[in-house]
Design a protein that fits this description.
221 residues; alpha+beta; 7 strands; transmembrane helix; transmembrane; membrane
């Protein structure tokens, strides 16, 4: 995927890597916000079917036990991994001195895609995420928001302030909080609209209270 085919604020991971921009994929926020995926529910349904439907044991024969163990192991592993990142995200966001950053661009995670044959690259979608740039530093670091498959780039808002909470022991684990910044922007917009409405209504009240002769007094003189 050529970077020239993309909007000005969208870059590919391979392009940024060549430009010297390095970052770790945000596993924590991606896992937490994705929650229990479709694969998890399908595996759960298959496990329930294997355990509850009559005749399945005799139909599968020797495959029954390995399949049941495989689905159970997947369900347990997925659930434990999700709960682990939920707890880690909650612990990270209790830090008192987060890294201040702002939204920089949108990045397409195409590194794994480039390892596939070119005919397949055109058929497979890649995940995208907002990349955040550390502020107030001569050598800024870059962080990613949660990465998902998206059909458009209208989720990106430039210059949104964010707080980045990193794990001191394992720096590849971090969490980006830009929701509070978006709430602040929305609150300020609502307050501005409220103030504008108040000023307009007060102006209308003043005009309504004005005496009939006051509006033409100046012209009569």
């Amino acid at each position: 995927m050529a970077n020239t085919e993309l909007p000005d604020f969208v870059y590919t991971q391979s392009y940024l890597k060549k430009a010297g921009v390095r970052f770790q994929v945000n596993v924590v926020d991606t896992t937490v916000k994705r929650g229990f995926s479709l694969n998890f529910y399908l595996a759960s349904l298959c496990f329930i079917a294997l355990c509850c439907l009559p005749g399945v044991f005799f139909f599968l024969g020797a495959l029954y036990v390995p399949l049941t163990a495989l689905f159970l192991a997947y369900i347990v592993f997925y659930a434990l991994r999700y709960l682990r990142f939920v707890r880690l995200r909650r612990r990270l966001r209790t830090q008192e001195r987060p890294i201040l950053a702002e939204s920089y661009a949108v990045v397409l995670l195409d590194e794994q895609l480039l390892q596939l044959p070119k005919p397949l690259q055109r058929c497979i979608k890649v995940k995208s995420a907002v990349i955040y740039k550390e502020t107030g530093s001569l050598k800024p670091r870059f962080f990613l928001g949660p990465a998902f498959y998206r059909s458009s780039f209208d989720f990106f808002r430039p210059d949104i302030k964010a707080q980045v909470f990193t794990d001191k022991k394992q720096e590849r684990f971090y969490s980006v909080d830009d929701e509070s910044a978006l709430q602040t922007v929305s609150a300020k917009a609502g307050l501005a609209a409220l103030n504008l409405g108040s000023s307009l209504s007060s102006g209308a009240e003043k005009q309504a209270l004005q005496l009939p002769g006051q509006g033409t007094a100046g012209s009569a003189d």
